[in-house]
Design brief:
The protein is an alpha+beta fold. The chain has 23 helices and 16 strands. The protein has 4 domains: 2-128; 155-335, 2-Layer Sandwich (Beta-Lactamase); 357-412 and 546-657, Hypothetical protein af1432 (Orthogonal Bundle), CATH 1.10.3210; 426-538.
C-alpha cells in the first residue's frame, strides 16, 4: 500500500493493522494529526503529517511550527523532492521538531518514519521530565537546607514552631495546619498532654492556639504520638465506620470546628516530630491539600473540587521537615531548660545581694527593666545619633543579665557599710548623745556646787538672788546643749545633693568639757565631726571607696563564669556601669567610647532608680521631674551620654518602673 494523499493516510489508519498504534485525532485541509496510542506519557505524543497545500502557505504553516516547538509535537512535511527543495526547510526554527518525507511513500517506510519520530519525541519528553524532576529535587534540597538553617538558628520556641508550620504548609500547599507539643515527663506517654501551640488557616480567621488535650487514640494527633508514625487521611468526610475499611484507626470526626467556622476538614496529614532520643515531642498536622490553581477555600463546593489527598511527595517533604524540626525543637527545649536554670541562678544571685542590703530590694530588677527598655527604644529610633544602632535579641538578653548582676560585687562589701543609713553609725550617735547627757549632768552638778557654796558663804539676803542666777545659768547652758544636740542630729541626716554650712561643726569640735577627772575633752571628736561634715550621702571617703569596690568585685566574679559567645560581654558591661564619659567614674576612669554603650545606658538607669526609689536608707523618694533634672545636670557636665538621655526622656523609658507608691 502506498500513501500519497491525506485520504490515503486516513484509510491506512482505519484499515491497516500495522497502524493500530495510531489514531486520527484531528485533521484539516491538507494535514492530519495522529496521536501515538502506545506511548505512555503525561502529555500525548502527536505527529502531524502536512502536504504542500499547507506548508507552502506561510500563514497556514505558522501554527504548526509553533506547536512543533512544544516538545510533544512532531511535524512531517510530505511532498516531492522538487517541492521540498523549493521550501527551503533549513530556514525553519532550529528548535522545531521538523522532518520531510518524499511522497508517495510505501507503508513500510511511513511506519518506520512515524515510529522513529514518535520514539524521538517520547525520549525528548522523558528527558525533559527527568530534567524537571532533577530541578525540582534541587529546589527541594535547597529548600530543605534553607529550612534546616532557619530552624537551627531560631531559639524562640514560638517563632520556631511558626516557621515549622509555615514551611510545611508551603511545601505541601496545605490550606491549614497546626503544631502540637508533647508536655510532661511521665514514662507512660499516654499520661502526658498535648499543647496546641501554633496554627494557621489561609481560608478562615480562626482563634489562636493555646489549649491542651490528653494524648489519646481518639484524636489523630494523639494516635500519631502513640504510634510514632505518620497518619494520612484522604477525606475525613468519607471515613468508614471506626475500625473498618478506610478507617483502621477508629477515628470519629468531630465537626464542631467545621460547623463553627463553616469549614470542612477533608484531607489530613499528621507527622510526628521525633527527638534524638527517639521520643515523639510534637506533631505537625496539615489540613486540606489544595489542588493546583486553588488559593482559598470559601464555598462548600470548593472543598469538593479544591481539596485533594496528601500524596507521597507531600508525605516525603513533611517527613523530612519533621525530622529536622524534631531535632531543632529538642534543641530549643533544651536551650529553654538551660536558660530557665540560668535565669533561676541569676535571680538567686540577686536575692543573695538583696539579703545583705534589703534597703535596695528590687533595685537590680528595676535597673534591668529600664536598661533593656532603653535598648528597645534605641532600636525603634529612626533619627538621632543612635539611629543605626540595633540590639539583637541576644544583645538584649546580655544587657538584662549584666543589669541584674551589676551590683553582685556588694557581697564583698562589709555589711555595716552597705546598710549605713546615717552619717554616724547608731552606736556613734548614741555615744554622742550620752556624752551630751554627761555634759548636762556636769553643768547641773556645777550649779549645785555653786548653790552650796553660796548657802555657806553668802548672807540670807544674797542667797535668793545668787540661787536664781545659778538656776538661770544652768537652764541657759542646758538649752544651748539641747540646741547643739538638735543641730548634730540634723547634720547626721544624709543628703543627695552637696550641702555646706558645716562651720559650726568645726567650732563644736573645738569646744571642750571636763570629765570627772578634770580632763578637758572635745564636744565632738575629729572623726565624729568628719562624719557629720559628709557633704553628700552617708558615707565617709574610705567607706565610699569600699562601696565603690563592689564594681571590681562584680567584674572579678562575673569574669570567672564561662559565658556563651552571645553573653561574653556581660562582665565588661556590668563592670563599667559607674564609669563617666569625662573620666571621673570608677573603677578604671574610662572615657567616652571606651565605655560600652550598654554600660552607658545602665548608668542612666542606675542613677534614675537610685534617685526615685523609696527604699534608700538615706533619703525619701525623689519626684521624677527632679530626678530627671539631676540626670540632665550630669549630662551637661559631660558625665552621661546626651543622646541616650534624650531617648530615655523622649521615649518615656523612665515610666517603665513608675508605680503608684513611688
Amino acid at each position: 500500500m502506498v500513501v500519497g494523499s491525506p485520504d490515503d493516510l486516513v484509510n491506512a489508519v482505519a484499515r491497516d493493522r500495522r497502524m493500530s498504534g495510531y489514531r486520527v485525532r484531528r485533521q484539516g485541509d491538507g494535514w492530519i494529526e495522529l496521536e501515538v496510542v502506545a506511548q505512555r506519557s503525561r502529555s500525548p505524543v502527536l505527529l502531524v503529517v502536512a502536504w504542500p497545500d499547507v506548508w507552502k502557505n506561510a500563514e497556514a504553516l505558522a501554527p504548526h511550527l509553533v506547536r512543533a516547538r512544544s516538545g510533544n509535537y512532531g511535524l512531517i512535511l510530505v511532498g516531492s523532492d522538487a517541492e521540498l527543495e523549493e521550501a527551503r526547510l533549513d530556514a525553519a526554527p532550529s528548535d522545531a521538531d521538523l522532518t520531510a518525507l518524499v511522497a508517495p511513500v510505501a507503508m513500510a517506510r511511513l511506519l518506520l518514519m512515524l515510529r522513529t519520530r514518535a520514539e524521538a519525541i517520547a525520549l525528548r519528553m522523558q528527558s525533559a521530565t527527568l530534567e524537571l524532576e532533577l530541578e525540582r529535587s534541587r529546589h527541594e534540597n535547597d529548600m530543605l537546607i534553607s529550612i534546616g538553617r532557619a530552624l537551627s538558628q531560631e531559639r524562640d520556641i514560638q517563632s520556631l514552631l511558626a516557621i515549622i508550620l509555615r514551611r510545611a504548609c508551603e511545601v505541601t500547599n496545605a490550606d491549614a495546619g497546626s503544631v502540637y507539643i508533647v508536655e510532661g515527663h511521665d514514662e507512660d506517654i499516654s499520661k502526658r498532654s498535648l499543647r496546641f501551640a501554633v496554627s494557621q488557616n489561609d481560608s478562615r480567621n480562626v482563634q489562636p492556639a493555646g489549649f491542651t488535650m490528653p494524648v489519646s487514640a481518639s484524636s489523630i494527633v494523639g494516635t500519631c504520638v502513640l504510634s510514632g508514625d505518620r497518619i494520612n487521611v484522604p477525606d475525613l468526610y468519607n471515613l468508614d465506620e471506626p475500625g473498618v475499611g478506610n478507617n483502621p484507626w477508629g477515628f470519629a470526626h468531630d465537626r464542631s470546628f467545621d460547623d463553627k467556622y463553616r469549614y470542612q476538614t477533608r484531607s489530613v496529614l499528621a507527622v510526628p516530630m521525633i527527638s534524638a532520643r527517639a521520643e515523639v515531642i510534637g506533631v505537625i498536622q496539615l489540613i486540606n491539600k489544595r489542588a493546583k490553581g486553588w488559593i482559598q477555600l470559601d464555598l462548600p463546593a470548593d472543598f469538593e473540587d479544591g481539596v485533594v489527598p496528601f500524596d507521597d511527595i507531600s508525605e516525603a517533604y513533611v517527613t523530612a521537615l519533621a525530622s529536622q524540626a524534631g531535632i531543632a525543637l529538642e534543641n530549643v527545649l533544651l536551650y529553654e531548660e538551660v536558660k530557665t536554670l540560668f535565669d533561676s541562678f541569676v535571680k538567686a544571685a540577686v536575692t543573695a545581694i538583696e539579703s545583705r542590703d534589703p534597703t535596695t530590694s528590687g533595685h537590680s530588677e528595676r535597673v534591668a527593666e529600664l536598661t533593656v527598655g532603653l535598648a528597645r527604644a534605641v532600636n525603634r529610633a529612626e533619627t538621632g545619633h543612635y539611629r543605626e544602632v540595633r540590639f539583637s535579641r541576644d544583645d538584649l538578653t546580655q544587657i538584662e543579665y549584666a543589669a541584674l548582676l551589676h551590683d553582685f560585687g556588694k557581697v564583698g562589701v562589709r555589711e555595716h557599710i552597705l546598710v549605713k543609713a546615717k552619717k554616724l553609725y547608731e552606736h556613734e550617735r548614741e555615744l554622742i548623745l550620752q556624752r551630751f547627757q554627761l555634759i548636762k549632768r556636769g553643768y547641773k552638778i556645777e550649779g549645785l556646787e555653786s548653790k552650796v557654796r553660796y548657802l555657806m558663804e553668802a548672807s540670807r539676803d544674797q542667797v535668793a538672788a545668787e540661787l536664781h542666777a545659778v538656776d538661770k545659768d544652768i537652764v541657759g547652758k542646758v538649752a544651748e546643749l539641747d540646741n547643739i544636740i538638735q543641730f548634730i542630729l540634723q547634720a547626721n541626716e544624709p543628703t543627695v545633693l552637696d550641702q555646706g554650712g558645716f562651720e559650726r561643726l568645726a567650732e563644736l569640735s573645738g569646744m571642750t568639757y571636763r570629765d570627772e577627772a578634770g580632763q578637758a575633752l572635745p564636744y565632738l571628736t575629729h572623726d565624729e565631726a568628719a562624719c557629720l561634715q559628709i557633704r553628700r550621702g552617708s558615707l565617709t571617703e574610705n567607706e565610699r571607696l569600699e562601696i565603690n569596690s563592689h564594681v571590681v568585685h562584680t567584674y572579678n566574679f562575673l569574669v570567672r563564669i564561662p559565658w556563651s559567645r552571645t553573653l561574653r560581654d556581660v562582665p565588661e558591661i556590668a563592670g563599667a556601669h559607674h564609669e563617666k564619659l569625662d573620666g571621673t567614674g570608677y573603677p578604671n576612669k574610662l572615657r567616652g567610647d571606651q565605655i560600652p554603650v550598654p554600660a552607658r545606658m545602665m548608668a542612666i538607669s542606675d542613677i534614675y532608680d537610685a534617685l526615685t526609689a523609696s527604699d534608700r536608707p538615706y533619703k525619701k523618694a525623689m519626684p521624677v521631674e527632679k530626678a530627671l533634672d539631676i540626670l540632665a545636670g550630669d549630662v551637661k557636665r559631660g558625665q552621661l551620654d546626651q543622646h541616650l538621655f534624650d531617648v530615655f526622656v523622649g521615649a518615656r523609658v523612665w515610666s517603665l518602673t513608675t508605680r503608684g507608691d513611688r
